[in-house]
From TrEMBL, chain A:
Domain Leucine-binding protein: 29-389
InterPro entries referenced in this protein's UniProt entry, alphabetically: BCAA_transport, Leu-bd, Peripla_BP_I
Listed Pfam families: Peripla_BP_6
Organism: Meinhardsimonia xiamenensis
The protein's name: Branched-chain amino acid transport system substrate-binding protein
Signal peptide location: 1-24
Automatic annotation (TrEMBL), chain B:
Name of the protein: Branched-chain amino acid transport system permease protein
Cell compartments where the protein resides: Cell membrane
Sorted UniProt keywords: Cell membrane, Membrane, Transmembrane, Transmembrane helix
Pfam families (alphabetical): BPD_transp_2 (PF02653)
Amino acid sequence: MTLRIGLMSFTAAAALALAGAAAAEECGTITLGAAISLTGKYATNGYHTQNGYEFAIRKIAEAGGVKVGDKCYNFKVIYYDDESKGDRGATLAERLINQDGVQYMLGPYSSGLTAAIAPVTEKYKIPMVEAEGASRSLFNKGYRYLFAVLSTSEQYLASAVDLAALMAEKSGKSPSDVKVAVAVENDPFSLDVRAGVIEDAEGYGMQIVVDEKLPRDLSDMTAILTKVKLVRPDLLVVSGHSKGAATAVRQIAEQGVSVPMIAMTHCEAADIVGNFGEAAEGILCSTQWAETLKYEDPIFGSAANYNEEFKAAFPEYADRAVPYQAAQASAAVLVYKDAFERAGTVDDREAVRDAIAATDMMTFYGPIKFDETGKNIAKPMVLRQIQNGQYNVVAPPEFASHELIWPRP
Amino acid sequence: MSMRKLALYGALLLLTVAAPFLFPAYQTQLATLWLMIIVALTWDMTGGQMGYNSLGNIFFYGTGMYVGAVITITLYFPLAEYTDASRSETFTFTPEMYFTGMVLGTLGAGLFCALSAYAIGPLFFGLRGPYFAIGTLGLAIAAGEIVSNIDILGGGQGISMPVYGGDFEVFKKIIYYVFAAMGVVLIVFLSWFYQTRFGKAINAIRDDEEKAEAMGIHTLRYKLVTWAISAFFVGMAGSISAFQLIHFEPLETAYQTINLGIFMVVCVLLGGKGTLWGPVIGAILFHVFKEVTWNYLLGWQWVALGALIVVIVVFFQDGLMGWLRHRKPEWFGIRVESREARASA
């Protein structure tokens, strides 16, 4: 696994070097640092994240690099493997800053790792633009140097609760009759997803009939599903990153759990369509980004264009949906490019931080504008349903391209 | 103590004090090195000197983290509000609040862990050999799972400690010197402790517990006190780690059974069980080995670590100190008559 990732990132880096060498001979280099999960339970998403960073770096180099004054720069990233462990991530962040002299950081994968690294970057006053830490708990610590391009996690499955209420009304019931089952990983991200769902469900007066935590290695949830079968909820919510999604889809099919509406996170990252086919039909998936959305920017073109070129650059994604983890990682690099150009300097870290804070831009990934806590408040989440093996946007209404299929087949 | 020994200890102490200035970029790694030395030495108190191989000493590390954090926070703010993930309020600590919390929290963590070792000890010291090892391991794993489900302690989110408001370089030196001071005190204490009657008694327990009992040693009391002392130091180290790491969560950081929980045993095996300096040397070698492989053999680091453990277990069963003692007994004050001398006599 690790070896494969190593080889792939090596090929990606080599391709980048070749592409960049001709165009950017006279360009300088801006070194970014990132500790990401190349092994451990978040390895899949760490890999998507790294690919997203590398793809953006390549595209920016092809477009002439980062133009600061009359000079141009290309990005380079120093990576370390945090093994999906917080204390390791914090140590590596220190190493990047202290020993490798990194002045600007990209985020790791997951809210937990971001929570571990953010205090370090904060102490050194090193800006960190992150794309994979969505928990609200990151944005109430008063951090000045942390910026997140993605929507926060309580919004992930809010649309699913709205849909469940809507469906209840359509079938002549009241939203307060809806029974909700929640099974989440015990980590900052999933707990925040759960908090959002429970808050919204209680707003409708729904009943929470199951509220369980997935076991720590995320490899077995049969006990929870047995309970779900008994209480027959109208909505089942699962959140546990890629591994949790894969376990849930597999075991829901194995145990023949039939729930009219199932909503989860990380469907694309776990490639549940490719891995489980039929079993994934009808599942609702929250996504930060979809290639069908009408966003665009000068570097990547439209969202659809990003999707196509990313697949061309990394052929292993050819037969599957490009995970939004990769797209938002690319968007984070784009934020840096924009900020460096507006700041007009690569050395004055405070000026660059202020430029990042003032970001207000449209990208292929969606609009990006930070509030004073550093989170992106401009971009909404969308909810897609797997219909005939395709991810189709079904909510919120202003983005929906397809009707919801309900109940789930 | 001979002049040579005195000079050697003086030089070591000087190096300890000067290290963060000599290697400013490595201050955090050096602080972690002292943490490794502390946990290795305390593990050896029961594992090497008393013959009780605990796999659960990480329990005191994790508990120390939580106790230190809880004391620091509750001194000034309501804990439930502080650990609420969706809070919008920001809590700030002045340097005075920060240091008061650090001192009281760390002492509290040490005391709490010592008391809990004394309280739960009778349950575990009825177990011998592998049963004791697995029993204590179960304690650490269970504690992690329980804490990860207590919402007021942040649950699976963990706790983010207050961030030190002042200069960060100063902060790193403080953490280093606190760990180093704790380590030096522990070494001095143990070098005295192992010479006392008490020290000899726990050695007797290791060598033959029944005989020790028959000689009138109240073995349970000795075992409890030894474990409690060891827990006291580990708990304090855990609390300082919480301040150092700032953010920690229960399963991977606090009760990290498969990392630090095992590393402390590997350090002792590498350096030599049942010796004073073995765990120290083992911790240094292990830490250096780990940092090097984790940097330059990325992807293979765990394979390298596994290979190291195999090599130790197969070729250096007594650790480096044991191997040295065998090769150079005179360095340890052991007089061996040479064959020639015996033959001529």
